[in-house]
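Troubleshooting log. The previous structure file for this entry was overwritten by mistake, so regenerating from the original sequence record. Sequence copied from the archived sheet and checked twice against the printout by T.R.
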Amino acid sequence: MGWVWTLSKYLIIFVVIYTVINWWRQPVMPADPKLQLIDYQGELVDLEQLSQQSPVLVYFWGTWCGVCKVTSPTINTLSQQNNYPIVTIAVNSGSNQDLHQYMAEHNYTFTTINDPNGAIFDQWQGQVTPSYVVLKNGEMTQGLTGIQPKWSLKLRLWLSSLV
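Regenerated output below.
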């Protein structure tokens, strides 16, 4: 039974360290955020307006990001379920044409803002991709980073809808 106690201690230490690192790396909402953006196809995306109706998941990612190759299919599935609006921001991922080609190759249908020089990500003090922000009523309710399972993202969106 000693191994159960040892394993439990290590699991608790891991969870605490992971939580602290996630909190430290999460994006931070700018004092005056630009919430009206144009997607890579030229359509207006008004994050503030979308977040008035229900929480919005904003997903910062990059075509070059290895971890995003794991997380983006989950985001695509969530966006297709249409339970909550999903808006993604492709950081340092090339031109609109490059991004369009990448999205088509991977059958991604989520709404995407192209951030070719990382300016939007910098405004949010983003440190790592993937990063996520949940917006409700134009305000950030949650921020997180790294690999997130679909159930975790759905739970966070649901919790934000209760606010």
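Strands lie at 36-38, 44-46, 56-61, 86-91, 111-115, 131-136, 139-145. Archived copy saved in two places this time.
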